[in-house]
Amino acid sequence: MVQCVGAVTSSLELQLQLARKPKEFSLKETGLDQCAIAKFAESFEVVPKTLAENAGLNAMEIISSLYAEHSTKNTEVGIDLDEGVCKGGSTLNIWDLHITKVFCS
């Protein structure tokens, strides 16, 4: 049963945001801590990479273009698997329950 009826866009922008923050933090660390934090950040890229690969897209190209969009503070950009480009989640009409994202951020 769903108790929260709020909706948020869901085209993988959250996963990239979750990957970006620890990746930036890992650059400030040294030694094994840096490697562990970087690998942790990399784990958030698994879902976007897998979806891109399964859609027949170049996963590294899609991930890098997502990071480029997110670096310009355009954080609502996700993957349009039909066209193979990055677009805003709200323009794609991809929605997810708010409660599933609350504990991630």
What would you say this structure looks like, in words?
With 105 residues, the chain is an alpha+beta fold. The longest helix has 14 residues, at 13-26. Strand 2 and strand 3 form a beta hairpin. Helix 1 crosses helix 4. The chain contains six helices and four strands; from the N terminus they run E-H-H-H-H-E-E-H-E-H. Strands 1-4 form a two-stranded antiparallel sheet. A two-stranded antiparallel ribbon has the order 2-3. The model has no long low-confidence stretch (mean pLDDT 79). It is globular. The protein has helices at residues 13-26, 31-43, 46-54, 59-71, 89-92, 98-102; strands spanning 7-9, 77-80, 85-88, 95-97.
Describe the structure concisely for a colleague.
With 105 residues, this protein is α+β, with helices and mostly antiparallel strands. The protein is built from six helices and four strands, in the order βααααββαβα.
Helix content estimate: 55-70%
Q: How would you describe the shape?
A: globular
Number of helices: 6
Beta-strand proportion? 5-15%
Average pLDDT works out at 79
Strand order of the largest sheet: 1-4
- Spans of 5+ residues with little confidence (pLDDT < 50)? none
User: How far do the termini sit from each other?
Assistant: 23 Å
Order of helices and strands: EHHHHEEHEH
Structural class: alpha+beta
Descriptive key words:
4 strands; alpha+beta; 13% strand; 6 helices; 55% helix; 105 residues; two-stranded antiparallel ribbon; globular
